[in-house]
Write a structure and sequence with these properties.
This protein is an alpha+beta fold and about 130 residues long. The chain has a single domain, classed as SCP2 sterol-binding domain (Nonspecific Lipid-transfer Protein, Chain A, 2-Layer Sandwich). The chain is built from 8 helices and 5 strands; from the N terminus they run H-H-H-E-E-E-H-E-H-H-E-H-H. The protein is globular.
Length: about 130
């Protein structure tokens, strides 16, 4: 990814990129995800930008997508396989937590703090957090 493209990421997408793009240097990540192609949209509802996390055969990158109008984040327009939608505070709590667990995520889904679509694709994120 070019330095120019990294500078174009705004808001939430930029934060997520700083968290996950170092995985491109991780050999365990490259071997685990060498055959996977998945796109997960991380939508911070209270922000202006959503982050489309793209894993493509052992590499990972983030694309920024404007939240408004809402049609920008629809599956047909953005092309995502899985979706996580919640407020920025909840995302940051998940991204910076040392011990993220399925139980914590399920409690937040049940309480309505997190909205999930395409759960089998979203579960890839738990594998990323392990690394």
């Amino acid at each position: 990814m070019t330095e120019e493209k990294k500078q174009k990421l705004h808001g939430f997408a930029g934060i997520v990129a700083k968290q996950v793009e170092p995985l491109n240097e991780n050999q365990e990540f490259k071997s685990r995800f060498k055959d996977k192609e998945v796109k997960v949209l991380l939508n911070a509802k209270d922000g202006k930008w959503a982050a489309l996390l793209v894993i493509d055969k052992g590499t990972i990158h983030i694309e920024g997508i404007k939240n408004e109008p809402k049609k920008n984040i629809k599956k047909k327009v953005a092309g995502w396989d899985g979706l996580i939608s919640c407020n920025t505070e909840t995302f940051l709590e998940l991204l910076t937590s040392d011990n993220i667990s399925m139980g914590k995520v399920v409690r937040k889904v049940i309480s309505g703090k997190i909205k999930l679509r395409g759960i089998k694709h979203v579960l890839v994120l738990l594998q990323l957090f392990e690394l």
